[in-house]
Design a protein that fits this description.
7-stranded mixed β-sheet, alpha+beta, 7 helices
Length: about 300
């Protein structure tokens, strides 16, 4: 799907491409690809690079075209294997042609357009658009990190009441998401440091870049903090599970030892051997009393040692 935006005096939707407009391509079709390659002359392999979900944050130049791949945060589904992930956003620039390509519709891009409409100032040039996309990505990393923190706190409260495999699996999924976030943020930071010397930067762009650096640094540090919290939380509950298992095994072993003494007595007197008690009328009561006494002494001893 293609959308055309005039951004010189605020963001305004237009029906067809014109010089110095922003072409937003979301979930590109074959028709979109043909338009970009045939009408605008974009190199065909740019589209393939953006379509690669594992493409790292980088930039490339070919025949005057500048392609920038920015890793942006994306919420797939809360019930998916990794609910929070990152996807590539392609930014392609040459002269009066500015194109963004994303293979999935994201909340970040919808919010970015709505925010720019409310701001009502538009973009001064392609560099301004690029750096504002960097800033929006950083802000959305922080938004999703707040959601991740809420999920972690809820899971911890549930685990304090009852250790459930479902909560532990959810925390494990968040670990994967935070790993994606941390790697992508570091890649974006490295890319931004290179683009400062590749794109034309004026005084306003320099201030915007400073804001982006602050937001990305905060996102990176927050991600690192949450990763450490998750690691320590998983280790803590793993130790609790091991401790509970040791407690159960100790209890079962203690009960086995308690049952061992009456089992030994009854087995000894129940054998078909002459022991002098088979003809004694008090033989059976004595064996029962011996079992009870041994069991009581064993219970007292194990409780004294706090093994029960």
């Amino acid at each position: 799907m293609r959308t055309y935006w005039n951004f010189k005096s605020g963001i305004k939707h237009i029906d067809a491409w014109e010089s110095n407009c922003w072409v937003q391509v979301t979930c590109p079709t074959d028709e979109d690809r043909e338009f970009l390659e045939m009408e605008l002359g974009m190199p065909d392999y740019f589209m393939d690079d953006v379509s690669d979900a594992d493409e790292r944050a980088r930039y490339d130049m070919d025949e005057g075209w500048l392609m920038i791949i920015l890793r942006i945060p994306h919420l797939k589904s809360v019930s998916s294997r990794s609910p929070y992930t990152t996807i590539p956003l392609g930014i392609v620039i040459k002269g009066d042609r500015i194109i963004t390509i994303c293979n999935q519709e994201t909340r970040m891009m919808l919010d970015f357009i709505n925010h720019q409409m409310r701001r009502g100032a538009g973009f001064t040039d392609a560099s301004d658009l690029v750096f504002r996309l960097f800033l929006s990505a950083s802000v959305w990393y922080l938004k999703y990190l707040k959601q991740v923190n809420s999920i972690i706190e809820k899971a911890k409260r549930d685990l304090d009441k009852h250790i459930d495999n479902k909560d532990l699996v959810n925390l494990s999924r968040l670990q994967d998401s935070l790993t994606y976030f941390g790697t992508s943020i570091r890649g974006n930071e490295s890319l931004l440091s290179k683009l400062k010397f590749r794109l034309p930067v004026d005084e306003l762009d320099a201030e915007l870049i400073e804001d982006v650096n602050i937001e990305m640094n905060q996102a990176r540090e927050t991600t690192a903090i949450y990763i450490n919290i998750l690691d320590s939380t998983m280790d803590t509950y793993a130790n609790i599970i091991n401790n509970n298992m040791n407690t159960v095994m100790r209890l079962l072993t203690s009960l086995n030892m308690i049952i061992l003494f009456p089992t030994f007595i009854t087995s000894m007197f129940g054998m078909n051997l002459t022991n002098g008690m088979e003809d004694w009328a008090m033989g059976f009561p004595v064996a029962i009393v011996a079992c009870v006494v041994c069991t009581a002494l064993s219970l007292w001893w194990f409780k004294r040692k706090k093994w029960l």
